[in-house]
Amino acid sequence: MEKNILLKKIREKVKNKEELKERIKKKIEKFGGIISEEGAVVLVARDLGIRIESEDREKINIKDLKKDLSNIQIEGRLKHIFPERRIVKNGREKTLSRAIIEDDTGEVTLTVFGKRSKELQEFEKGDFIVLENAFVGEWNNRLQLNLGWKGKIELSKKGERKTKKLSELSKDNANVDIVGKITNMFNENIFKGGKLRAFILADDSGTKKVVAWNEQVDILKNFGVGDVIKIENAYMREGLKDLEINIGWRGRIKKLEEDMKTIRDIERKKISELKEGEFVEIAGRVNNIFREQEYIACERCGKKVEEEMGKFRCKEHGEVKGKLKKIFRIEIDDGTGRINASIFDREVKPGEYVVLRGRKRTTGDYEDFSVWQVVSHLKSLEAKKILEEI
Hints:
The chain is mainly β. The protein is about 15% helix and about 50% strand. The chain has helices at about 5-10, 15-30, 35-45, 115-120, 215-220, 385-390; strands at about 60, 70-80, 85-90, 90-105, 105-115, 130-140, 140-155, 175-185, 190, 195-200, 205-215, 230-240, 245, 250-255, 280-295, 305-310, 310-315, 320, 325-335, 340-345, 355-365, 365-380. A hairpin with a 4-residue loop joins strand 19 (about 325-335) and strand 20.
């Protein structure tokens, strides 16, 4: 229903034009200027008990939206959900959420408050929703959707969750979605102009450091170690040692009521049971060291560097200081079988015991255990018993 029709119904109850203007003005002020005049008219109508019958509601495409439309039904896909915000106006605190909805004809911003703000945060990016009793306002010279006093947000169809594994992330990723389990959290760091807090996220492909910035730090207080979360609209940045996931103002952290196995919840396997490509943990005795090799690596990414005129250059980070690294090529025996592996920066000797995580890899007739992590390196005579108890 258009604003003019609704105003006509209101004027049947409020005869004085100045009184009506004042009522509309107070509604806009009450919501801190965030709602439009059209939204205020709908709220005034509600206060006066004016009912908008369901048969007056029309379903509409986004491209056909225009200012003053009200009591409409619209269906679309959640392209982007922004984190919930708290605003204070006239001493009262309110919650606000925004989202971008799209259909085949276009996209528009949705703004909701209070209870509906909480409801919106329950959805995931990509979900299809239906809005009932919506109206069209204007904010910063752009159309936006709001919900009337009987407005509803309902799930039409669950969207496909399009996420990337941690091992698949690259520096070019932006607005990327990730699912993982929090395995470690660090203290908040406050600096001039902002604050940050880091944590470690794991999935079944690896781990990554995540940095939450400013308002996201406050949101992060609702989460803890062991929580499975979905991060929406993250971006990647080069850290000191590796690529880091960053959550800025466009990002969102959502707790998922589910569990997941991560790379840190890995099954222990005997060497004789190893299958090609399966990520597992093995434990065994170092039988032999075939080769010890040294090389200069980039101190940021750990990759081998090239030496040019006495200076070290990394393909990814340019000129670097360089760091000496060692590779030990070893044979491991657990009593059921033997397999070769390469260990970086960990001096081992025959007779010692190691716990390794990685994957069996076969090249032609040659089998190798590709090491992702050295979990334990035990040198004592008690090592074998300790390993068997792990």
